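Box 3.1 A note on notation
Throughout this textbook, protein chains are presented in two layers. The first layer is the amino acid sequence; the second is a token string describing backbone geometry. Keep the layers aligned when reading.
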Amino acid sequence: MASSFGSLFRITTWGESHGGGVGVVIDGCPPRLPISLEAIQAELDRRRPGQSKITTQRKESDTVRILSGVNEDGLSLGTPISLLVMNEDQRSNDYNEMKDKYRPSHADFAYDQKFGIRAWQGGGRSSARETIGRVAAGAVAKMLLASLGVEVISFVERVHSISTEIDPLSVTIEDVESNIVRCPDLAAANQMIELIEKIRKEGNSIGGTIFTVAKGVPAGWGEPVFDKLEADLGKAILSLPACKGIEFGGGFGMTHLTGLEANDHYYSVANDTEIPDVATRTNHSGGIQGGISNGMPILIRSAFKPTATVLREQPTVDNQHQDTTLTGRGRHDPCVLPRAVPMVDAMVALVLADHALRQRALG
């Protein structure tokens, strides 16, 4: 079972939803990078359950510990960095019925077919709790990127039919964190919150989209064939629970354009260097061309389906493949989007950090 991701900046996550704890080992972080425990904890606080009335009410502090790879002065040693978060509020009894019955649209049936065994208490590795390790590692990747002048910001763009038309390049992290749904458009955010609360009371769930902007990425990151930057970003984001789609720049909307309309047109930007910078007047490509960053902001939209667990009776089958019914129990997000924002941030940061080191290796 693959639990590692990345090439030079490589992470391995471990742990189950209802086990003793979860964590990550980061291998390849350069030495002498200032590592802030507070910044890692802040990212985990954005991801943790129980943070608002529109998220799962599982009570976890998600307090992180650094076990290795950082000295007493807070500098990375260049050796593996190990991060640990203990589980505190498991309620395995909520899942007793799921021991023999498959939850609709979950990984239960597929896991049984692949491994012949599964962690039915909470879903094990298929649970979003696995993403703690990703978010913690992503916080470290953000520290590396910040030293290179790169910033990654994600926000909730749409919940079901309610969306914002805000300029993504104008959004700040303060805007994102100004409300519990993490939409920087306050009017749209209030409508989203109202809808999520309504859906939660009905025992149902909804999905939507997250928009991500990576600013300050220099031209030249990425690879031209199999490890194209958008291919690695796509794999990273699509590996998150509930993510079902992704597009870059103009995305699927470009299928409605002609080549003249869709092409990004270059022009020179005068500066004090011998070779002028090159920019584009448009960014339909989303900052990536030929699998390599072109110096423009990287623009990504990712789609997340409604949470699979709903508190309604539904038809399913048991592990003997007999028809039965199942009513969802436990504590679950009626909409994954607010907590998915730091997860998307983390995966984008991990890919960019990896490609930054790969570009550095070229000399």
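The domain at 4-249+285-361 is CATH 3.60.150.10 (Chorismate synthase, AroC fold). The chain has one domain: 4-249+285-361.
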